[in-house]
């Protein structure tokens, strides 16, 4: 299997997830039409859909029904989109561009952007909790619990708080502190995405742990790659402003280790991620290729 097959697999997943989002997000109608339009703008029409792809490929290891996996993939992408909308706000990262387009608060206004994030987050859990996602209530409940843990105060939101606090810290963060911040802010949602297919497939603990560990190492490598892109890529390549971390004096693994050591660390993590998939055989080859892609990409 080659990078071309990964590209095809990602493209197919993107199209299917986009269709699922189209069905699961509210239509632009009624008095709240502007809110619904902004939700669809934030969640559809862009992005790599890596988290959704992880859900689909994880589910494929256990022959999970495609519709069930797509609903979970769409829910994860809604939650991820909410986090980006809020991260882009002036009170957070203050970004004007996302995926080469105006951010939600620029296209609409800040109040709408806050409400869009709130609505996307709650819609994600509504989708997970619905009977169409899985016939067993216990499975749906576990999906909701694990996503809440990954995205809440001890996950993504907690990581964002650490990121904000770091900006005013007297001393720059240590390598361990940067690693924890990035694990919470970015890594935990990627871990959940990798494990979600195993939850849907009612896999044993060993199989769940293997996918979770894969997601952990993939997420860390992905974040280092993001930091490398911020330091080396252009805004045209990434679709958003670059050089912001250095401009803000923000500690990253790149600033602490240097470009070459950070790149070597990412490559070690990719190798570890791939090794976690040994028990799944050839069926997990797209997941292995995704790990390689995480540090080879330019956006």
UniProtKB/TrEMBL annotation:
Cross-referenced PANTHER family: FARNESYL DIPHOSPHATE SYNTHASE
GO molecular function: transferase activity
Protein keywords: Isoprene biosynthesis, Magnesium, Metal-binding, Transferase
Family designation: Belongs to the FPP/GGPP synthase family.
Highest taxon, organism lineage: Bacteria
EC category name: transferase
EC number: 2.5.1.-
Name this polypeptide is given: Polyprenyl synthetase family protein
NADP found in the keyword field: no
Listed cofactors: Mg(2+)
């Amino acid at each position: 299997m080659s990078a071309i097959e990964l590209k095809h697999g990602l493209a197919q997943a993107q199209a299917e997830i986009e269709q699922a989002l189209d069905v699961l997000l509210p239509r632009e109608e009624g008095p709240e039409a502007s809110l619904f339009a902004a939700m669809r703008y934030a969640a559809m029409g862009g992005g790599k859909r890596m988290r959704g792809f992880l859900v689909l490929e994880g589910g494929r290891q256990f022959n999970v029904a495609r519709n069930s996996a797509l609903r979970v993939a769409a829910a994860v992408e809604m939650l991820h989109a909410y986090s980006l909308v809020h991260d882009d706000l002036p009170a957070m990262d203050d970004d004007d561009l996302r995926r080469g387009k105006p951010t939600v608060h620029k296209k609409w206004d800040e109040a709408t952007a806050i409400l869009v994030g709130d609505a996307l987050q709650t819609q994600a859990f509504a989708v997970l909790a619905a009977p169409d996602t899985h016939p067993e209530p216990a499975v749906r409940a576990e999906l909701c619990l694990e996503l809440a843990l990954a995205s809440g105060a001890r996950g993504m939101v907690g990581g964002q708080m650490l990121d904000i606090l770091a900006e005013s810290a007297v001393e720059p963060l240590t390598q361990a502190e940067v690693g924890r911040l990035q694990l919470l802010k970015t890594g935990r949602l990627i871990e959940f995405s990798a494990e979600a297919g195993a939850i849907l497939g009612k896999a044993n603990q060993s199989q769940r742990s293997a996918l979770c560990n894969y997601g952990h190492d993939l997420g860390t490598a992905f974040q280092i790659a993001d930091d490398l892109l911020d330091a080396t890529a252009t805004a045209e390549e990434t679709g958003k402003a670059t050089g912001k971390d250095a401009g803000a004096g923000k500690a990253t693994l790149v600033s602490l280790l240097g470009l070459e050591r950070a790149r070597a660390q990412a490559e070690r993590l990719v190798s570890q991620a791939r090794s976690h998939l040994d028990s799944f055989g050839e069926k997990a080859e797209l997941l292995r290729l995704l790990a390689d892609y995480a540090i080879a990409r330019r956006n």
